[in-house]
Structures are given as C-alpha cells and as structure tokens.
Amino acid sequence: MTNRLPRIADLDAASAGWGFFLCARKEVRTGRSGDYLAIVLQDVSGEIRAKVFQEVDALKEEFDAGEFVKIQAKGNAFNSQLELIVDKIRRVMPARDAAEGFREEECIPCAPRPVDEMWAELQGRLAEVHDSQLRDLLMRVVSANADRFRIWPAARQVHHAYRSGLLEHVLKIIEIVTFLADAYGARRDLVIAGAILHDIGKLRELEYDITTEYSLEGNLLGHIAIGSAMLRDAIRDTPDFPARLALELEHLVLSHHGAREMGSPVEPMTLEALLLSTADELDARMQQVRRHIANDGSEGPFTSYHKRLERSFLKPSAS
Amino acid sequence: MTNRLPRIADLDAASAGWGFFLCARKEVRTGRSGDYLAIVLQDVSGEIRAKVFQEVDALKEEFDAGEFVKIQAKGNAFNSQLELIVDKIRRVMPARDAAEGFREEECIPCAPRPVDEMWAELQGRLAEVHDSQLRDLLMRVVSANADRFRIWPAARQVHHAYRSGLLEHVLKIIEIVTFLADAYGARRDLVIAGAILHDIGKLRELEYDITTEYSLEGNLLGHIAIGSAMLRDAIRDTPDFPARLALELEHLVLSHHGAREMGSPVEPMTLEALLLSTADELDARMQQVRRHIANDGSEGPFTSYHKRLERSFLKPSAS
Amino acid sequence: MTNRLPRIADLDAASAGWGFFLCARKEVRTGRSGDYLAIVLQDVSGEIRAKVFQEVDALKEEFDAGEFVKIQAKGNAFNSQLELIVDKIRRVMPARDAAEGFREEECIPCAPRPVDEMWAELQGRLAEVHDSQLRDLLMRVVSANADRFRIWPAARQVHHAYRSGLLEHVLKIIEIVTFLADAYGARRDLVIAGAILHDIGKLRELEYDITTEYSLEGNLLGHIAIGSAMLRDAIRDTPDFPARLALELEHLVLSHHGAREMGSPVEPMTLEALLLSTADELDARMQQVRRHIANDGSEGPFTSYHKRLERSFLKPSAS
Amino acid sequence: MTNRLPRIADLDAASAGWGFFLCARKEVRTGRSGDYLAIVLQDVSGEIRAKVFQEVDALKEEFDAGEFVKIQAKGNAFNSQLELIVDKIRRVMPARDAAEGFREEECIPCAPRPVDEMWAELQGRLAEVHDSQLRDLLMRVVSANADRFRIWPAARQVHHAYRSGLLEHVLKIIEIVTFLADAYGARRDLVIAGAILHDIGKLRELEYDITTEYSLEGNLLGHIAIGSAMLRDAIRDTPDFPARLALELEHLVLSHHGAREMGSPVEPMTLEALLLSTADELDARMQQVRRHIANDGSEGPFTSYHKRLERSFLKPSAS
Amino acid sequence: MTNRLPRIADLDAASAGWGFFLCARKEVRTGRSGDYLAIVLQDVSGEIRAKVFQEVDALKEEFDAGEFVKIQAKGNAFNSQLELIVDKIRRVMPARDAAEGFREEECIPCAPRPVDEMWAELQGRLAEVHDSQLRDLLMRVVSANADRFRIWPAARQVHHAYRSGLLEHVLKIIEIVTFLADAYGARRDLVIAGAILHDIGKLRELEYDITTEYSLEGNLLGHIAIGSAMLRDAIRDTPDFPARLALELEHLVLSHHGAREMGSPVEPMTLEALLLSTADELDARMQQVRRHIANDGSEGPFTSYHKRLERSFLKPSAS
Amino acid sequence: MTNRLPRIADLDAASAGWGFFLCARKEVRTGRSGDYLAIVLQDVSGEIRAKVFQEVDALKEEFDAGEFVKIQAKGNAFNSQLELIVDKIRRVMPARDAAEGFREEECIPCAPRPVDEMWAELQGRLAEVHDSQLRDLLMRVVSANADRFRIWPAARQVHHAYRSGLLEHVLKIIEIVTFLADAYGARRDLVIAGAILHDIGKLRELEYDITTEYSLEGNLLGHIAIGSAMLRDAIRDTPDFPARLALELEHLVLSHHGAREMGSPVEPMTLEALLLSTADELDARMQQVRRHIANDGSEGPFTSYHKRLERSFLKPSAS
To answer: Chain A contacts of B248, Cβ < 8 Å?
Structure first.
C-alpha cells in the first residue's frame, strides 16, 4: 500500500493509502470485546470521520486530539456518508516526516483567502476611517493584538471555526455594514469600528493552538464583557477621546448579539448597532449554510439535516 | 385669524391659523359634560394629534376618518408633545377650496421619493435580470399590477404605511439583496425576483384609497398565500416556464417572513431565501427606527419609547 | 429450521423460522470488529427492530430500505423489548417466492379498514353535501386525485403513517366535525369540505411507494401551500363558483394547523375553521396514543415514554 | 319620558325611557370639572356600557355594583358602539318597583336554556352510567351540591359567565365526550364522570350571588385542587370504591387543563383525560367566539378584535 | 382652611388643609373643556395621586415634577382608592416656607432605616472580610463612591426606589448570602464582595437628585457592564491583586441577574454566583410584595392586582 | 486476584479485585457479535459505570437492577472518565457473603448525615413551633409517616436521590426558611410547617426499596396533589383546626414549585409561600451543583457539562 491519500475533499470510498492529517477529536467508544477509537481528521480542505478498531488500548495513549498523525487507511461508505477505516496510526515526527511530504500548513483547516491578503485589506479599511481619533484608536487595538487577530478562529465550532476565521468574518462584516450604512444614512466610521471591535474579546475568550478551547476568563466573562474591557483599556490610553463616541463604541460591542436572550446585556439603540448585529448574525448564518451545502455528501436535492439551524437546505441544481 | 398654518413638520406651539389636512383617524372620547373628538391629521410632511371640544354632537356626523378637512386651530404643548386644539372643522369642498389652495397631493402622506423616479428605477432593475423567461415573468406581473404597485403602501401601520411605500420598500430591498447576493455568491436573478414578488400579495391584502384597510381576502388568506397564488397565475400563463425555477420563486414568497411563528409556512432553505428574509426584516425595522427618531419631539438624548420595538433609541448628537 | 414465523404482532422471544417482510429502514452501526446492520421490518400487523451481525459488508449492497426481504431469524429480548436476530436475509424474488407464500399486501403496513369500504364511505359523505356547487367541486377534486387519495399515508412518521392512512384520517375527521358542527351550529357543508381538502396537499408533498418521502415541492412549499393551490386550480375550472365560499374554503386549508407557530399562515377566523383544526389535532394525537399503547411491550401499568408527546400513558387495566 | 326601554339586545341610538337593570360594574372616572360614573348594565338579554355625568358625588354612595337599579336614559353612538347616557339612577326598591314591572329574573344574565330542562338532562346522563358504584358516586356528588350546581356560572368573566353557565358547559361537554369516546374506543362511563366532576371545584372557587367573585379558598387553592378534594371526600364515603377507578377519576380532574402551563399539575395520561381536556378547551373557546360574534356591533365583514383570542372573526354572511 | 394635612400615610377621605410635598410626577390629561393635571405627591411616609382642575394652563409652567410644592387640598375616595383634589398649588420657596415648617427631608421618600446606621453596618461588614487584598479593594470602592452609595436608590421604579434604597438592598443581601454561604459551604468573603459590588454600576446607570432617571451611559451600557468596568478600574489600582480572584469577582457582577434573558451575559458558574443571584432576586421580590401589601387600600382579603408580579397577594389576617 | 476493591470514591484506573455493590441500573447494548451489559454500581460513597462483555446471554437473567452483586473487575480510563470492566458478576447470597464482609448498608447510597441525628433535629424543629394546634398537626403527620419519612429519597434522580435524602432536604429548607422568615418578617411557624409538608406527597409518589420508582398514584396524581390530600386528611382528624390556617397550609403545599409551568396549580400569594418556593428551588439546585462538582473527574478548571442545568461549573481552586 504505497499510495498517498488525496486531500480530504477529494477522498472517495475507493481511496486507500497513507497520509498526514490533524487529529481534531478523539473518543473511545464501546463494542462487544472492548473499545474502538472514533476520531475526526482534518486537513486544509475539510474534515472526515474515521474509526480505529485495532490495538485500541495501546493507541489510547499514543496520540491525542490536537496532534498531527500519519495514518494508513481506506475509504468506507457508512449510511451514505464517507468515513475512513484506519489500519495504522501514529503521531507525526516532524523532522522525519517532512521528508515524506508532511507540511503542517496543509493539515490545518484555515480560511480560504490568504491571511496576508486579508490583513492588507483590513489595513485599507482602517485607512478609510475619517475621524482621526477613532482611526488611531482602531489602529492601536489592531496592532496591539495583531499576532492573534491574524490567525484566530471566530468560534470553537459554530462558524468560521478555523485559522484566520475571525479576520475573514470581520472583513465580510465591514463589507456589508459599510454598504448598509450608505443605504440607510448611518455613520460609516462607526460601523467600521463596530465590525472591527465587536468580537475582539474572542482573542481572549478562546485559546487557539491548532485546536480551539475556551479560556478561563472566556468561560467566566464571555467575549462581550472581555471585548468591552479591551476597548476601555485602549480608550483610556487615548488622550481626549470624546466621551460620547466612547459610549457609542462600547454600546456597539455590548449590543452586537442583538437581544438579551442571545447574551447582549443591552439591545441596539442606534442605527449603527442595529446594522452591526444584523450583519453579524447574517454572516454567521451564511457561512454555516454555505459550508453545510459544500460538505454535504447525501443524495437527492436536499442536504442532510442541519441540527443547529433545524432544517435541510436545497442544493444548487446541476445546471 | 387669517394666517395659513405651515406644514405639519413645521408647526409649533405658537402656530395659529387655518389649513387643509387629511383626517386619518377620528375617535370620540368622554369628559364630564359629554364627549370630545380626538383626531389625527396628516399632510405630506407628517402627522399630528388634535382635539375638538366644541359642537361635538354635530361634528360626529360632519366628517369621517379618510376625508380631507379644513380646520382653524392653534398649537398646544401637551406633556411635552405638540398637538392642535381645533376651533372649527369641516369637510373639504374640493371645487371651492381649490381656490384657497387645497391640493389633495399635499395632504396625503407619501414616500419621500417621486413615484415616477422610483418606477423608472424598478424598470431598470427588471432589465438587469439575465434569465429572459424570468425577466418576462416579472415584467408581466409588474405591468399587470402597475396601477396599484405604483401607489400602494407596504402596510396599514407598521412601516412604509403611506402612498408608494411598497414600491419604496421593494426598491430598497433590491438594492440590498443584489449587494448581498454578490457578497455571498447567491443568484442575483433570484433575489431580484424575490424582492419584487415577496409582498405582491399586499396589492390584494390591503385596500388603499387615501387610508388603508385589510380586504376580506387579506384577512382570511394573508398576503403570503395571496402572493403565492398571484405568482402561480402568472407562471401558468408562461409557456415552458422551468418547473424548478417556479418552485424556488414560490419558496421565496412563502418563506420571506423567515420563521413559522412570523407567519411563513416554510422556512428559508436556499441562500436567496435567507438573504431575502433578512433584507425584508432589516428594511422594515430601519424604516420604523428612522421615522421614530425623525418624528420624536421629546427632550433629552433618547427618543420616547417605541412600543413595538420595545426600547428607546439614541438620537443623533447635535454635532 | 423449517418453521414459518408468525405475523409481527404475534412474535415472541421463542419465535424462530423464516418469513417475508418489508425492510422499512436500514442503517449501518459500528461494533469493535466492524459494522452491523440495524433494520426495521414491517408487515400488515406492525413493525419490529432487527439486527444482522453476519456478512455485513456483502449485505450493505444486497438489499435496500423499501424492499421486500426473506429472512431467517429468531426472537430476542433486549431491555424488555422484543427484537429479531437475523441469520440470513435476501431480497424477495417475487415470481419464485410467491410459490412459498409471499404476498406483497401482507407485508405492507396499512390502515385497519379495507380501502374499498373507506372509499365508499367517502362517496357517501360527498353525497351528503347540500350545496351542489360545493359538492361538485369536492367530487371533482376527489376523482382527479383518486389514485393517490385511496392509498396515500397521512404522514411520513408521526401519525397514520401507512397505506391509506390519509383516507382513514379524513373519514374520522368528517365523523367528528359533522357532529361538532351540529353541536355548535356551524355549517355542515363547510366542515365536510374542510375535512376533505385540508390535507389534500399531502398528495404532492409526499411521495409514497411502499415507503414515504418528502417530494421536492413538498419540502419547498409544504402541504398547506400546495393544497391551497390545488383548491384554487379546481375552483378556476368551476364556472360561477361563489367568491366568498372560495375564500372560506381556502381559509380552512390555510388555517387548519390552528396557529402560526404550527405552520398556518393565518389563524382560524370562522367557527368551521376552529372545529376543523381542533378535530385534526385531536385525531392525530389519538392515533399516536392508541398506537403507542397497542405496540407497547413494557412491563408495569405505564407504557414506555413517548418522545414526541413527552409522557408515558396508562395502559388499560386487565379487567 | 314615560316610555319603558326595550331589552338591552333591542336597544338602539334612538331609544329613550326608563327601565330596570342589574348594575354589574361601577367605576369613577375623571373629567375636567370632576368625576363621572362609567357603569355596565345587564339584563337577561345582554349587557351595555353606560355613563352618568350628573350628581356623581351623591351617586357614588347611592348604589353599588351587584345591585339592581332603575334608570332613566337615552341611547348614544360612541365610536360606532352603542352606549346609554343616564340621566337618573337609583337602587331598586323591590316591593315598590315590582308594581312597575321589576322582575329580578329579567335583569340577570343567564344561560339560554331553562335550568329545569338542563337539570333533567343531567339526571338522564347520570342514569346512562353503567358502573353502579360510579353512578352512585356521581349522583351523590351532584345531589349534595345541587343548589349551587343548578345556578353557578362557569367563570367570572371568560366563558359561560352567567347564571347556570356551569351546568350548560357540563352538559355540552358530556354531549361531546360521549360521542368522542365512541369514536375512539374510550370508556363512556369515565368521560361522563370526568365531564361532571372536572369543574366541580368551581362551586367553591367562585362565590356567586348575582355577581361572581373568587372566594378565599378559590384564590389560594384553585378549582382543580378544590375539585380533587371534593372528589376524595365523596369517595371516602363510598364503601369499597375501587382504588384504581378512584385514581383515574382524580387524574381526570387534575389533568383537565391539558398542560402544566395551563394549571394542571399532571398532564393527561389516558384516552379519557385527553378527550376531556380537548372538549373542555373547545367548548370554552366556541362559547367565547359565538358570543363575541353575536354581540358584535361593528360594521364590515369582521368582528371587532377579541383581546383574549387575539384576532377578529368573520361574521356569517347575510345570505 | 388653616389645618395642616397629616403625613401621606395618615391621610383619609376627610382630610383637608395645606401641606408640603414632593411632586414626583406631573402629567396633563384631557377633559371636555380642556386639560387637568394628574400628579403624584410624595413625602417620607409614602405617595398619593392628586388632581388639579383649576388654572391648568397657568400651572403647566408653574412647577415641574421633581420640585417641592405647597398645596391646599382635600381627600377624595376614587374607586375605593384615596386621592387628593388640589385647590391651590405652587412651588416651594425654601427660605420663606421653612418658617411654616417646610423640611426637605420630610418630603423625600427614603429607606426606613437611618442612613448613618446603615452606613455603619456596611463598615462592619467590610471589616468581616478576611482576605486583606479583597477587603482593601472593597473599602476603596466603597469610599471612592461613598457620596452616592449612601443615598442612591436601587432602581427608578421597581424596588427600593427611594433615597438610600441601594444601601438598604445591599445590606439585606449581605445578611442573606453570608447565612447561605455558611449553610452551603460557599466562601463568605466572595459573597460579601458580590453583594457589595453587584449593583455598583447603578451609581452611574441612574441619576438621582430627588427624582431618579437613567443616565446616558446607563441607557447605552446598563449597570452590569458599568459595574464590571468600575470593578476593573479598582483592581487595576491594586498592585498584585490575584488574577483568579479578579475573574471570580467580575463573574459575580456579570452573572448576578441569573440568566441571559434577564440581561446577564454569562450565567452563574460558581456556588457564590448562584447564591448571589438567588438572594438578589428574592430581596427585590420581597420588597415589592411587602410594599404592595403595606400600601394596599382595597377591601377584602386580597390586595389589588400587582401588574409586574401578575397576581394578587393575601393580606395578613387581623388576628 | 485476592484484593478487595476500595470504595467507589477511592477507585482509580489501577484498581483491581473483588467487591460488593448495589447494581442500580442494567441495560443491554449491542456490539458486532451480540450484546454486552452496561451497568451502574453504587455504594455508600458514590456510583460508577461498568461493563460486562462475557457470558452476556447467561447474565441477562442472573441478576437484576436493584440487587446486590459481587463482582471481580478492574479499572479503566474511558474518555477521561473512570469505569470498571467486570470479569465476573453474580447476585449476593447474604448469608454466605456476610462472612466475606458484605454489609448491605455499605452498598446503599445514602445521605451524608446519620439518620438518627437528622431525625432528632426534626423533632427539635417541631418543638419550636409555637402554635400548639399547628405543632400537634405536624407531629401527627410526621409520626404517622415516620417509617418512610426517615429513609425516603427526595427524588428518583435529580437531587437528594438517595436514602434519607428527603429528610436531609427538609431539614436544610427549615434552616433556610426560618432564617429568611426572620429577615423579612414572615411567620416562622408557617414556614416550618411548609418545609415539613411541602414534599410529604413524595412518600406516596415514590416507591423506594433500595431503588426508587414512581408509584401508580405518583404518576397519575403527582406529589403536589397527593401531599395536599394527606394534609387534608390530617386536618380532618384535628378538631377545631382553624379554617384559614388550613387554607394557608394547603396553599404552601400547592404553590411550592413557584410557577404553573413548574407544576404548581396556584402561584405563591403569601410571603411564606414565596420564601418556601425560593428555598426549595435553591436547595435542589445547590445539591445538584455541589454533587456535580464533587463527582467530576474531568481535567481543567471547569467540570463537565451539566445537562439539566445547561452549563459547566468552575471547580474550587487548589489553594
């Protein structure tokens, strides 16, 4: 078995061979004579479920979720969904495996656009802000958090849950809210600021290092309160920042979930806050739906059921 | 008292004189020695509450809601809100009053943009539709309903509740959904079609003749079912209209309220249906909020409480 | 092993032998050394779960859900519920197996009453309608859809989910609403019409061919909108059909789920619509409860928990 | 002014004269120079609002809600609804006013059917119960409470809120549940018992003496708990009453509101309890709707808005 | 009329004379010949509604809500509730009226316990905190805000809506949560800190100067976010404050409404946060109920209906 | 393998040996070659999951949930949670196994405090009741039900679901409500009575004999209605018991779930009922949270997710 497996997006039931992947989740399940491993593998093109039936006791300790693995496996159709049956699996040894073609960046799920391109676009958006005090504030916040802002995911699971997903999400929201601000006579500067700042608290709510987890403060405070505090810290360092503008910015951060039952302690009271919360929810939803359609492997005109959105979606017709 | 009152938007507590208005609502209320009339007057610039204390028994029959009236009145501050105290009021006699400057169109609330300009924009949008079968269908629906489509309000009370409000609403939605379709890779033709068709049932759900009421079929069927039937009628008259496109169009009409509890019997299952329902809700909300802010006469940084949206809004600062 | 298995309703843990059944569902599940098949078998008397542990890879392709199968199996008590352990299973070969006693109609779940008897009752009900225009309309709708109306199930899973279940459901509703119409002075003709028409859209919402699935238009439009369109088509072909009667009929179809959150775009506004939606919900619920009690195999005075209705039910006492 | 006013159901704006009525509610409201009385008058045919503008201070103490009054008044159209403007009003002096035609029973709202006829029907229903122990129990409960059961209203305001309304409600429910029990194979004896017992607690929850109020125990315990206790008391006095039957009867009383959020501490777990709660809710709703339609004085095809049921209803067409 | 009116708590329908009060609310209402004033008067013992029918136009400008007034008035029973009919009313002239007995503090609603006594209790509670860093932090926050903390109300309307109401509320919560912390093995220091800090944001959310209004930041941010920021500011000024303790304190502030739909962006995740949110809700509710019962003037065993709590309450029996 | 296993609370992955436990639950699950047993074992120190893979068919009948078993087993880490893999298992033979150290009371989950100590505390609380009629009533109820009251659990699963859990729950509530009654001026006697009586119906709602199940009347009536009936029976046997006190006691029982959607047919209308429902909910919640934290075996600062409470909890820090 000397073939190398194709990327996940190109696998089918006839695929067989070896390859490098990120093991994103790993769980022991139980069968008659003991346990087997149910794992999730990822690469830059997507993710797939896999099962390991052999030497489970040994493998329990051999590798963990969040590590790169080398596997030997073959495709299998399971209730009309593709999975991999893994014959061998071990932790990647970076030095040695590089020779065989292991490239970390090819195993990590990541936003479709190159991060440098997105970062440049963000800089361009910042330069569009007319009010110089506001522009300076935003630039300072962005620079101070650049390392994380460039690569952070937007969530652990729901939407944009991959490398640089937060940046991708922010740019799309800027695109939408600037358009809507013009359409409804709202203030462009404010909606750009809101788009950049609204999820800034996620840089501390989440810990990201290939996999994503909630931090201690993330669980106890949530990204809305953390982001509000990060904004206040930045404003404190800005001499003579206008008090009312400061309030409106914090209102944008606090209200961006749109309703109290969604976790916003105050509800949108300005045109800009209304536009921001609409764009945020829309972008999260569109990303989920588009990804669900793209990943769907079911037959027939509709996708499989999407549990969070509680419905199936119509797949685009062939034509 | 020979002064003519200014437009409603320009009235203040010191205003006094005569003028022509539309009486939009009329109600009898009770005081110690009998009843008084509480009415709402409108002109093209807005609306205002007024009270009539004299000769109420006679006036009960003298004019009705939905009629133009000539009044003599003076401004009055009532709990920080402006109202008119009416001394004399009678039904307009068009022939005679025209000589004194009565112009029907100046007394009717109406969309801010000229209807001809909006209609031309709609034609331009129709021409943008690439698929010729779909474009023909839309043109046929629009032409067949042109008389109503040009002047119909979008609702009895909630939003765009004035002459040509539906057209204004549809154009704004087209502007938004075409932008969003490009942003998310959805089909432009379909979202334009959805924007034009989604409220088409309101042309029969509502009866509009200066004032707006629900029709018999409007109450029993609702504009979603009526619009769906109007679309089917139009498709039936179109030879060889593609079956799947027909289904997707009807899905756009049926799902445009976004959720079952909002009155949509099915929920959005395509990208285009998701974008349309988001844009529809956003435009309705933005129009309500902007109008509430514009009409607000209260002191302080916040508007009065908006009952339907259950909050106050921050007024733009002076600067 | 030359015994023939009894009907499903008569199986017990000591049963062993061969038999013919419909395989209604088929799913692969995972154990330590690979997968097994979890299937559901049906015949005219009920349904039962079964498991296949042998030659699973081969059997994955050997037969599908929706096909008739011949099996060799034995009973097994599993957490106090009866199941079958299948040793052999293959697709039925109709010609050959007929000789051994395979009868398609004995393997298909189906309403308890003979379809011809129910169809005759429906004709009798139609003849009871006094208004000749309405009676003609109903007869036309029923005749035009007779092939499907005779055999269609009322749902894919919830209630009356078997051959001729829709017809059984409609007849029971007619029985109830005519009684209630007399009790409350509502119009008999209208409630009969509502009972016949309310679910007519299910003839196109569902595809039924031994098993039941949602159609493309079923998913995108739902049976309420489809039924409303079918009614309109029929009325269009009826010269001089009274406009108000047409509206009331369509209102019955649109409002029959009783509330917007249940999927009705309008809520009942006539006595007849109130009675119809009450009878529809009652009959669906009673059928679920009676079937749940009848199929229950648990010990003790209460049935197992009914997930959809969120409770257990008291079983009738022995006496 | 020597005319006697017609019954309330026959009043119009031109009516003027004197008459005897029950004053059902009485409230002081405020006008510029002091207060006026807003009252509600009832007779056997219906109820109407009235206003008293004169000698209010004196009249505040002159009569109370719950007393019979003699008035002199004239009709008045107020926002398209009829009301009475009262010139004179005083408490009835039974001895003296009898000579002028005062009859208490003509001033009290009351069920449309004669109470003796309804009582006889109830006895007939009791005789239909097959199980002799159950029949004896029901007869004992009914006899012991006969004085109240004959005349009690079913509610203070919502439905059947008049003399003998409870009896009317119980009989209608018996009619429906016996029919439904036959239709669904449920036990006739049990549903008759449930219909008779379900609201028995209202005989102590409400105090009725022309007007209706909640009693102390009514507020603190509610009619469900009171009825359950009354049932237990009766069973305790019945030697050898079967334990399981006792439980099922109490379950019927406790679960008859159908759901916990409606005030039932347990939800229906038997066919009979499901039928009873459906029939109870249906009868309450039908009575409200029919009465709302009957009393409606608005123009156009729809009634005024029904606040509790949150909609308007279609009025029967003239034909 | 030379009598001085008694305190509000001691007024009855026979009271007549003059007195000094705070005018807490003032609204113009409409009667037949124009308008009257509906006002609310307060003193240290309670509040009462009053009406002014004379010289309304002049009085509209003569005094405002939030000012002290001298009135001449008499008691009046209005629908079983006491009110005042005001004959004369003017703004207080402090210098002159002091001579007649005007004392500002007697006209302002205020917590029942003396503020100095409550302040001393708070100091004692602070001293009970064992952890010196935490104790220092709390003392610093309390000192820095002492002026407001001594006199601030806890709300604009709902509960403890009077001078020093916040302090009263905090002390009662400390009493309860220290007891509960001992009962459930939670940390005493933390619950005391939570009780003191949880509503600290109200010192900036509300503006209080005899009457209470929301501030600009109060509306836009809410007291939970403001309080969280105040806590962070204080911690920043505390060298070496433990990071985990800081997180737990902020969690207490953020989660103290107990649920997201109540406005808390995170829900309680520690024993202390659970106890704090329970005690906060309980104290708010008990204060409302006790005050409602104390102020109730209705007859019978139950109070009038409490709109926010949606029920009546049983009044203590005489015995 | 001659080691005896430690108590459940002291097991780890390296544990191996034999021991005596209560088998609390037993379920058959399916693997490829047949079934295995998933069981739950308990002793006085806690509970643990275990699996039996061998001789399953034989063992299906060998012992049941609710029986004591002797096992031979070893520890196993499964998804970071400890479980036991059972090699041998058989029903305990009390006579023989006593010799090896089987003690029934060491295998039964039970409240942490000795029952005699708790019972004495309850007697002390009863003696604190001032009103002699009430004290006598409570003593009679407690004595009459002493056998069950001493050992009953408070629930089948949610909270205090072990031997004497109800008594523990009642004592904690008495501790809290007497404190709160003093804090808010409520009646001590009444809250003690409410604490003792509120769950008295659980003595008949649940059947407890090592394991806990709902009784027939428990399912059909629920503990609120049963408790109310038990209270009435006791009052009936008490000559001259004050009627109002009886009502208030029954109100405490009926309203103690605090809201109708929680199963209380009436909502708290007295201070005492408010305090009781608050304390009841608080104690149930605190017990769940404390137990969840105590039993948690996950890594990191937070517990695993608590499904019923829908969140994780912060574990106490090491310090």
So the answer is: 314
